């Protein structure tokens, strides 16, 4: 058979909150019912997500996850991030809901993730990329540590393990190129934000900014610096 279509069905504690979140991402609600069971459908181009409500559901305990392959993950990330900034006045990068910027993770394809109000993960990657090809891309030293940390912090949400990997890697590979050290420190700052550790986040960001980089390296890292600066600024000053 051909032309089969399958849609994910994701749980949430509050249908209206979940629908509102997806509307911030540029989705539109195409269906809504309250009885016999709360249910809604949101769509953005060819991405269709069905949501169902469960009284007392804890988003932190959700195992909901869906893979989304798109022609250009970076373009979609930019659109999602813009919508969330407009809605929340900042980029939600910690807690639930949150959005994680595109990054290469060890052993898998480059992409980004969104965690919705139900604790469900949307894992977005590029159409045509495969894990087999990704595994052929060999990295070493601190660059490999960053990818390993991203596998824990971005793909699994285990932020503490990712922080430990980065901190140990920065010590072990103290002679790594300045640009690679900057990437590690900027990611460390981002992870510290997710753990609500303002001193660690600010220290990592300051250390990255203090590195002696060439003009080309600073230009290449401008997006990473801007992102880390933005998310660190979202932390409570008293934290």
Notes on the structure:
- With 239 residues, this protein is α/β, with parallel strands linked by helices.
- Among the domains are: 9-57, 2,3-Dihydroxybiphenyl 1,2-Dioxygenase, domain 1, CATH 3.10.180.10; 138-234, Serine Threonine Protein Phosphatase 5, Tetratricopeptide repeat (Alpha Horseshoe).
- It contains 9 helices and 8 strands.
- The chain has helices spanning 15-24, 73-88, 131-136, 141-156, 159-172, 178-194, 198-210, 215-220, 222-232; strands at 9-12, 28-33, 39-44, 47-53, 65-70, 98-103, 111-115, 121-126.
- Helix 5 (159-172) packs antiparallel against helix 6.
- It is globular.
Task: Tell me the number of strands.
Answer: 8
CATH class of the domain at 138-234: Mainly Alpha
How would you name the CATH homologous superfamily of the domain at 138-234? Tetratricopeptide repeat domain
Q: Tell me the span between the first and last alpha carbons.
A: 57 Å
From the 3D structure, determine the CATH topology of the domain at 138-234.
Answer: Serine Threonine Protein Phosphatase 5, Tetratricopeptide repeat
Largest sheet: 4 strands, mixed
CATH architecture of the domain at 138-234: Alpha Horseshoe
Low-confidence segments, ≥5 residues, pLDDT <50?
none
Order of SSEs, N→C? EHEEEEHEEEHHHHHHH
Apparent shape? globular
Number of alpha- plus pi-helical segments: 9
